């Protein structure tokens, strides 16, 4: 948000949690210049009123939230759509092909119209390149892309953990179980009774279990692409008493002869050269606290020989690598910038 002759940026949904995280990251980006911010319910108010953590950022106090007008968004080189699911498609349709658009919502993640109809309802808008650069082949698809669908936070954590094991043929694709905990910011900023502090503090609760969570088909889609065959999974999400973070533990039945050393080698091969995905030393297990505020994902794996299953755990910040940071990472690729520009792999502690 500093005055500079850079790539012009507009952020929709700038009054929400993902929008606020985007603006925090963009404030330190040397090539992206935020010129327009929109927030439907807060239009006409100063940005820092909705995002007080940006006070002190050069230029932030000069920005006022606007109504979302595609004609004004089209003046930017890069548009981030940080909107509730189902709201991005209509806006994207009115933006010129020359504009780079990164959607943080679900509108363009799913390739299967039937999956969209089953889990979201309404008309399927189509699919865009999937914005998880660490998956096989995805980095090349994102370089120079004009339209990008940023993944969901749960699917990011699950795909990073299990995709290399499926690609290496070390686990079975039809017996995958995911249990993942999220901080309350994953539900957005709209007030809800179940997200009140007095409801969340001191409690961990399950929700949307039994295969009904909307991220289920997205997980199956990315994992199936890695495996080269259909992957089915059971997913139980948990709400944890923390503001931000994802801790996902995924188990899958081991293929005959697969060993713990092979599991670890597959993850090391996939991520040893990656700037944001880190396989932890043996015996060290991921913690959401270690990834807070970073664009990193921490990964660990074990072979449970008692039941013949691989166990892989991934921690990440749902607002950063699970949303805004990943979106910036993808935008960097789209503009031919170093992928790490404006992003940190280091968490905040304590």
From TrEMBL:
Pfam families: Semialdhyde_dh, Semialdhyde_dhC_1. Pathway: Amino-acid biosynthesis; L-arginine biosynthesis; N(2)-acetyl-L-ornithine from L-glutamate: step 3/4. One of its GO terms (cellular component) is cytoplasm. The keyword NADP applies. One of its GO terms (biological process) is L-arginine biosynthetic process. Residues 8-143 form the Semialdehyde dehydrogenase NAD-binding domain. The active site is at residue 153. Its EC number is 1.2.1.38. Keywords: Amino-acid biosynthesis, Arginine biosynthesis, Cytoplasm, NADP, Oxidoreductase. The keyword Ligase does not apply. GO terms for molecular function: N-acetyl-gamma-glutamyl-phosphate reductase activity; NAD binding; NADP+ binding. It is found in: Cytoplasm. It catalyses: N-acetyl-L-glutamate 5-semialdehyde + phosphate + NADP(+) = N-acetyl-L-glutamyl 5-phosphate + NADPH + H(+). Belongs to the NAGSA dehydrogenase family. Type 1 subfamily. Catalyzes the NADPH-dependent reduction of N-acetyl-5-glutamyl phosphate to yield N-acetyl-L-glutamate 5-semialdehyde. PANTHER family: N-ACETYL-GAMMA-GLUTAMYL-PHOSPHATE REDUCTASE, CHLOROPLASTIC-RELATED, N-ACETYL-GAMMA-GLUTAMYL-PHOSPHATE REDUCTASE, CHLOROPLASTIC-RELATED-RELATED. This is N-acetyl-gamma-glutamyl-phosphate reductase. It comes from Motilibacter peucedani.
């Amino acid at each position: 948000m500093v005055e500079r002759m850079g790539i012009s940026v507009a952020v929709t949904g700038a009054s929400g949690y993902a929008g606020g995280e985007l603006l925090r990251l963009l404030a330190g980006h040397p090539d992206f210049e935020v010129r327009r911010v929109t927030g439907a319910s807060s239009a006409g108010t100063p940005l820092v009123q909705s995002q007080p953590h940006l006070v002190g950022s050069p230029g932030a106090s000069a920005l006022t939230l606007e109504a979302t007008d595609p004609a004004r968004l089209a003046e930017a080189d890069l548009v981030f759509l940080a909107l509730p699911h189902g709201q991005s498609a209509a806006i994207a349709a009115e933006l010129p092909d020359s504009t780079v658009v990164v959607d943080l919502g679900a509108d363009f993640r799913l390739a299967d119209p039937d999956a969209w109809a089953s889990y979201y309802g309404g008309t399927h808008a189509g699919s865009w390149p999937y914005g998880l650069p660490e998956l096989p082949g995805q980095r090349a698809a994102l370089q120079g892309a004009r339209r990008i669908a940023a993944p969901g936070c749960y699917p990011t954590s699950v795909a990073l953990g299990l995709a290399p094991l499926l690609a290496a043929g070390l686990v079975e694709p039809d017996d995958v179980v995911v249990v993942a905990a999220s901080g309350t910011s994953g539900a957005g900023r709209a007030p809800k009774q179940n997200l009140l502090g007095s409801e969340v503090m001191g409690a961990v609760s399950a929700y949307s279990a039994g295969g009904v969570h909307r991220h289920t088909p997205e997980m199956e889609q990315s994992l199936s692409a890695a495996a080269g065959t259909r992957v089915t999974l059971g997913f139980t999400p948990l709400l944890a008493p923390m503001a931000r973070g994802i801790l996902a533990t995924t188990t899958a039945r081991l293929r005959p002869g697969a060993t713990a050393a092979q599991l670890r080698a597959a993850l090391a091969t996939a991520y040893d050269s990656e700037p944001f995905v880190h396989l932890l030393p043996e015996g060290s297990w991921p913690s959401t606290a270690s990834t807070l505020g970073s664009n990193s994902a921490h990964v660990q794996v074990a072979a449970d020989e008692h039941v013949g299953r691989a166990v892989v755990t991934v921690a990440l910040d749902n607002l950063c690598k699970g949303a805004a940071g990943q979106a910036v990472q993808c935008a960097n690729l789209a503009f031919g910038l170093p992928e790490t520009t404006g992003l940190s792999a280091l968490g905040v502690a304590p």
